[in-house]
Amino acid sequence: RFYQYLLFNSFFGKVALDYLLKGRGLKLATIKEFGLGFSPDSPLGLKKFLIDKKKFDPRDIERAGIGYPKGGYFIDRLRGRVIFPLLDHRGNTVGFAGRVLPGPNEGETAKYINTPETSVYHKSSLLYGLNLTKQNIKRKNVAIVVEGELDAISSWQAGIQNVVALKGSALTGDQVRLISRFCKKAILCLDSDIAGDSAARRGVITAQEQGLEVKVARLKDYKDPDDAARKNPEGYKKSLIEAVGIWDFLIDSVFERFDAKSGEGKAKISREVVPVLSLISDKIVQDHYVNAVSKRLEVSAEAVLAQVSKQAGKKESSFARSTSLRATEDEEKRGRRELLEERILSLGFRYNPEILLKKSISDLVKTPLSKRILDEYLIYSQKKGKFNVSEFGTALPKELFDGFARMVLSEESEIGSPNEIPIEEGAVLHELRTLSLKEKLVKLSEEIRGLEEEGGKTCLPAGREKLAKAEEEFKNLTEKLHSLEEKTKQGIILDE
């Protein structure tokens, strides 16, 4: 509040406010929403306010990283800068970032500085803006990941309000896990060269391994998301909708740099693409890209696969895997379906118990714990009518209570306003239906393969009829899945 007051109410803050309004194109409401402020280039301001007036212990201020004693003064670490408060996803201020104002002395010091890491601020764990955007991320089931504070703020102002910013150029394991609590997809829109930056590349591979679906957006004519959001917000949104999968992006970036027609070009492409292919853990997905690369190189898929197999034991592949943080014990034990089922039950128990009485819900809930808790609730509702969370929890068998408690206390299911409840329920159910269709398709695909191996197309009429029926069902389910995925794609940026 000290920094905000100085931005809006002091002579010193006028220059900084003009820079934000005119130089960066921010609206007053946006500046206030993100709590931006200003620290004058003076050694006395911080001491007068925090120590002399508010009676803070100087040692606490130093431990927080805001200031430090020097030559009889208490120096503000961020003096002479626009201030960006750094808040965790719960809305607690954990640190600050400061940007120097443009001017003749701009190049003499770092453009951005941050308060140092403390017991509450860890750069690798923070996602800037998540405190404001987490409900939109949950609703859209995708996080737009940018690289800096102004990238996030300008994106928000342009209507892209499911955005977060990294403190750095590469996703970390902690950030991946934090994003995964609110959605299962991320679109990277970073200033850095993801394909050429090994740290950035390892970050997205970590995300893939932990179950976060990653795509990459290309801004083409703009240097960063802030530039795109200010100059062409509609084009920026279009680039996010057209984002490509991370493996396509990494492979395409190699083919763009070398001539795939020449022998030398093929060798260079192979040296860069093969390590990428070796990192794809899903063998079906890997096989798809092996075939795609072989066609573009005009060589056999067997030749590419042989190189991939050889690469699997080499340093880069093993290094990338060894540096990927393991999923938490909870993530290892529980799959996406179980997490989704628990979330819909959590939403029901906390905000809308009636939704759990619908047959469409009971048809979607399959995992043993969630199924048993839902069955207990259906019995309870017939006997009692109105739901009482304490009474229901107390009446549950002991082996179900911990799971139920986790559901009703889940932070991920907190809703910002009553209007968000049906939106969140719809998003979770939409994903559960999509997941159920995919599971049915896998099962049906195995059934069709088995029938074909038995000669179903050429043997008895009953066998041919069974195969034809299975293939027709597979076609119908595929169309349903395509329809659901198209709805998801259209909901990435624009409100539904």
Give an overview in words.
With 496 residues, the protein is α/β, with parallel strands linked by helices. It folds into five domains: 120 residues, DNA primase, catalytic core, N-terminal domain (DNA primase DNAg catalytic core, N-terminal domain, Alpha-Beta Complex); 125 residues, 3-Layer(aba) Sandwich (Dna Topoisomerase Vi A Subunit, Chain: A, domain 2), CATH 3.40.1360.10; 65 residues; 80 residues, no CATH class; 71 residues. It is built from 24 helices and twelve strands. It has a six-stranded mixed beta sheet with strand order 7-9-8-10-11-12, with helices on both faces. A four-stranded antiparallel beta sheet has the order 1-4-5-6. Strand 4 and strand 5 form a beta hairpin. It is globular.
Compact summary:
The chain is α/β, with parallel strands linked by helices and 496 residues long.
What gross morphology would you assign?
Answer: globular
Summed over residues and divided by their number, the pLDDT gives a mean of: 81
Lateral strand order in the biggest sheet: 7-9-8-10-11-12
CATH class wording of the largest domain: Alpha Beta
Number of strands: 12
Organism: Candidatus Woesebacteria bacterium CG_4_9_14_3_um_filter_39_10
Keywords: Coiled coil
Protein name: Toprim domain-containing protein
Domain Toprim: 141-222
